[in-house]
Each structure stands twice: as C-alpha cells, then as structure tokens.
Amino acid sequence: MLILIVAATSFEVEPLVNSFGNKLDVLITGAGMVPTAFAMGRQFNMHKYDLVINLGIAGSFDSEITPGYVVEITEDTFAETGAEDDQEFIPITTLGFGENTFKPTTTLEQVCSSLYLTKAKAITVNTVHGNEESIQKIQRRLNPQIETMEGAAFFYACRQFNTPCLQIRSVSNYVEKRNRDNWDIQLAIKNLNNFAIELVNRIVNN
Ligand SMILES: O=C(O)c1cccc(C(=O)CC[C@H]2O[C@@H](n3cnc4c(=O)[nH]cnc43)[C@H](O)[C@@H]2O)c1
Predict the structure, then answer these.
(1) How far is the CA of 34 from the centre of ligand 1 (A)?
(2) Interface pTM (ipTM) of the complex?
(3) Cα(153) to centroid of ligand 1, in Å?
(4) Of all atoms in ligand 1, which is nearest to the CA of residue 150?
(5) The dihedral of CA 137, 140, 141, 145: what is its sign?
C-alpha cells in the first residue's frame, strides 16, 4: 500500500520520519491552505497513492479535547470563505459560488479497525482566532471543536484527485485569547507521532 504523509512543517512529523526513513513518502507543504493545496496538487500530478494522511497540531475549542489529545477529523470547513453583510456572514454556499465543507474519503475504522480516536469537527482559517469576541462569534456560527490552517484544503485536494484520505490532529493549545505560554507543542507532537507510528506499522504489517 502506497501511503503519503502530508504535514505543514517537518518538526510535526520528525519522529515518524525517523522511524520509517525513506519507506514512507512525506510531503511538507508549509503552513496554510494555499501552500497545502498547491503542494498536494503538484504531488498528485506526479504520484498516485492508496492512502494520504494529514498529520499536524491544532487548536481546540472544546474543553473536553484537551492539549495532547489526538483526534480524527470528520469534516472541515473553510470558515472565512464568504461575504460580510454588515454584522452578518454569508457563506459561499449561500452566495452560490461553491462549497465550504469537505470530508475525508475514508475513515480510521476502515483503514485500521484496531485503532480508535475521538472524532471531531474542524474549521480551517487563514487568521488563527485569538480574540474572545471573534471566538464566540465563530462558535455561534459553526460550533467547531478543532481549528487548523490546512485541513479543509487537504480534504479538497484529496477529493479532486479521488484519493482515500484521513486527517489526524493533535491538540497543542486551546483556541483562546492569544497566549503562546499556554501552548504545549512538544506534548502534541509526541502524542501525534506515537499514534502515527502505530497506525503506519499496523497498516504496512497487515
Ligand atoms: O504564534 C501564533 O499565534 C501561532 C498561531 C497559529 C499557529 C502557530 C504555529 O506556529 C503553528 C502552525 C501550525 O499549527 C496548526 N495550529 C496549531 N494551533 C492552531 C490554532 O489554534 N489554530 C489554527 N491552527 C493551529 C496550524 O495548522 C499550523 O500549521 C502560531
């Protein structure tokens, strides 16, 4: 089975890469939705994969999904794509120009039934929420559990190329008034990579 790992930065997947070396294809896209979509489009034009997995750290809006928690993303919405109408937000779906919510094309259960993760709904943003008023606003509008800067672009690229995909995220921080001292990136990366190493081992040895 040919697997591609997609991550925004190399440090997020370093332990996994150290475990598997060149037995695993890894695409480092750079942070954000545009670099992700571009890098994946280029990669998919050159190679075809049986499974593509997006791994990375993320913010959590959900007090039960605490830093260090690893989750499977079941849907992901481009939260900012639309138009403002004074105090209201009109999503692109209502404007009639396209879609804003994308889903994985397989599930963890289908890929490896012996592993389980809590499922969560995500948003993808260009501007990370770090202001109490804007956080409450997005919670009222979309009620997300997880926030990243790439996830929906990852699902979009996989759908365009009809490629089975999963997004697995590990929480490094709560989405709150910006405070970098509260982030635990080390714990998030450790838990993410422990899970990913187990997952890839089980898939390749199956
Ligand atoms: O210094 C900051 O305020 C800051 C804000 C967002 C992200 C960063 C990073 O260095 C990490 C980039 C990477 O991590 C993902 N990520 C992690 N936490 C969040 C979040 O709360 N909201 C959105 N994205 C997050 C993201 O996918 C990036 O790839 C620094």
Answers:
(1) 15
(2) 0.93
(3) 15
(4) 27
(5) positive
Write the pLDDT tens digit of every residue in 158-190: 999 999 999 999 999 999 999 999 999 999 999
Helices 151-160 and 33-46, packing angle to 10 deg: 30
The domain limits of the chain are: 3-204
Q: Which atom of ligand 1 is nearest to the CA of 185?
A: 17
pTM of the model: 0.96
Secondary structure (3-state) at 188: helix
Which homologous superfamily does the CATH classification assign to the domain defined by 3-204? Nucleoside phosphorylase domain (3.40.50.1580)
Q: What percent of the chain shows pLDDT beyond 90?
A: 99
Q: From the CA of 159, how far away is ligand 1's center (Å)? A: 24
Tell me which residue has tokens 């794509």: 81
- pLDDT tens digits for range 63-72: 999 999 999 9
Q: Is 148 in the pocket of ligand 1 (CB under 6 A)?
A: yes
